[in-house]
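Continuing the batch. This is chain 6 of the set; chains 1 through 5 are on the previous pages. Same settings as before, nothing changed between runs. Recording input and output for traceability.
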Amino acid sequence: MKPTTAIKKAGSLVGQLQRTGNAWAYLWYDQQYNAYRSINYCDYWQAYSKRRTSLIETALRLLFPDQDQELAGLQPEYRSGRWQNWVWQIYQQNQA
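Output for chain 6:
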């Protein structure tokens, strides 16, 4: 699978941020249990950061299904730039 396909699929597996009162959350698809789950409600920036990390990790799980444990240790905190760029960068680093 190419990164472009993984990025598109990750976008469909991780939902948009939703507001409930003063808290925010999103749904994400858990492939292990074949069900959608919700994160705990939190403030906007925490939810935004968690969703961004979820998008990256979902795309990486699709790209490297056999290397789940190894990739988790290599990932930095995703704070700047577009999340899609992180997927491309980690993909290129792990192709060697």
